[in-house]
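Handout, page 2. Input:
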Amino acid sequence: MTYSGGFDAAWLPADAFHAVGSRCSLLRAADGPLVDTMHGELASAYERFGERVVRGGGEDAELVLELADGPDDEGFALTRRDGATTVTASGEQGLLHGFFHVVRLGEDAFAGERAREEHRPAFVSRMLDHWDNVAVHPVMGQVERGYAGGSLFWTDGRARGDPDRVWAYGRLLAACGINAVAVNNVNVHRAEAHLLTDRIGEVAAIADVLRPYGIRTHLSVTFAAPMVLGGLPTADPLDGAVRAW
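Output:
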């Protein structure tokens, strides 16, 4: 999938991939959704800057991305020796983070020698909370405290249906090390309550777009659900009817 005009590529414009795309790369990893994402990123860079990506082995390469045994903690190691820059990780997520780290370094990733560096996230969950309302709130609008503009996900009571924009956002989050996002306001109103039931398909469509970059999709839920969805007079968790619901 590609994205076009109308929104900013932030620090991921095509030229940011020049250092990667002008060198042959070797991707040593079994098939997987995030490995396929990396292959797509590399192929796109090579199409623009003239080199190639090899999956498997047997080729000399200046960039090597490989999965190795070990705990899948989303970390990665980076080294450079004998003319090759190598990113090693024990999971797809870590390898994707390592790939974007090389993109950030640019030409510096391919200069001289580099002793082994290990990078691991300090927190398992690195989530962004959106204060987006599904339906426009009469006071707060589409996004509560929406200093940065409109919602990426919702407009006028429905899903935006703009996968390119959500894809570009997921790509940017992955490149910054984010691995989860909550797509609705923590103040859950009546429309949002239905995202867990008859409107779950709209959430699933967003999750499908974000998943190739390792971004998990979360929902803020209403603790008044027994009243909003169940028609009960209370949401008291000690109430027998609430507990039965």
